[in-house]
Amino acid sequence: SLTLEGAKRLVDAERYWVEIYGDFTLKGSVFAPGIKDADELIRIGDEIIIRKHEKLCGVGVACMNGKEMKESQQGEAVKIRHHI
Question: Is pTM beyond 0.90 here?
Answer without folding.
Answer: no
